[in-house]
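User: As part of a screening pipeline, I want to sanity-check one entry by hand. Below is the sequence and the SMILES for LBFN2T5F. Please return the complex as structure tokens so I can compare it with the automated output.
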Amino acid sequence: MAASVPLSRSTPRSLTSFCSRFAAPSPHGGPRFVSFARNPSWRRAAASMSIEAPEKATNLSFLDRKESGFLHFVKYQGLGNDFILVDNRDSLEPRVTPEQAVKICDRNFGVGADGVIFAMPGTNGTDYTMKIFNSDGSEPEMCGNGVRCFARFIAELENLHGKQSFTVHTGAGLIVPEIQTDGKVKVDMGHPVLSAADIPTKLSGNKDGAVIGDELVVDGVAWKVTCVSMGNPHCVTFGTKQQDGLQVDDLHLSDIGPKFEHHEMFPSRTNTEFVQVISRSHLKMRVWERGAGATLACGTGACAVVVAAVLEGRSERKCVVDLPGGPLEIEWREEDNRIYMTGPAEFSH
Ligand SMILES: N[C@@H](CCC[C@H](N)C(=O)O)C(=O)O
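Assistant: Here is the complex for your manual check:
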């Protein structure tokens, strides 16, 4: 998306008033994204928004303006899961509140995105901290597609080229994305968490506390579910008790998704993945995300799907997972119990 919003006196009233509601103060007063100037496509598609129409003529691009009251941002997407990225490297205080994030993410009255991501200084010895708000303003622990976008954003901000790797502190702990020479990003997503209490789910689980192929009644239908946390909660299903073997294209996601998300068995709500097995190394899924609804892709969801498929004996540990926005490569390594996700992350034009 070319989100260029040069506000002027002719700016439509609706846009001006929208901007006024989420203009973020600049604590240091300096230009935030000086590095935008390096990349011509950023200069076109990166945007800033202000509470007021500029009065004075200037030769500077609006991206380089120093006035406080501008929120500078860019958009990235990973397989169509799209995010507004904000340079927050000077502070652990996000420049945008959850309420403002809801407005910015609105696809009709705002910029439109599945979430807002902040690039913050590192904590606990990491290079950076990633914070994210969902489009409903809630704050998830982790975001797989988001961390790939985050890595590309950092590389652009820091003017880094070629293979690069960072340590990123997230609500799910340490995450390590590595930009590959082909521009894709491979992410060490850490270990999956299987204990019901930690996911969290009230489903009782087996003797180890894991919920694998358990029954969950949703709207009178008994689904078979496996629950996995990738830092954030996931409920994965391959079908109902009656019908094992979903045709995911036939699902009415906006009907069934919210019923899983808000089910009483998930005290922190849940992301839900509906999965079709194409082969033992090829899965197809649709996702209903907590706090964002139906999205085109979910990285943590794709990881959870492979873990669930392995635990249910449906797939190998290395799979291609097809999402509506495209494929991700996922591997759950036996040697170290870590999950590796590889996929694209692109600047939104
Ligand atoms: N799309 C993300 C997940 C974003 C967070 C999720 N909605 C939640 O609330 O847990 C991904 O790619 O992992």
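Points to compare against the pipeline: The chain has a mean pLDDT of 86. The pocket of LBFN2T5F is lined by residues 81, 134, 140, 143-146, 232, 271, 289-292, 295, 298-301 (CB under 6 Å).
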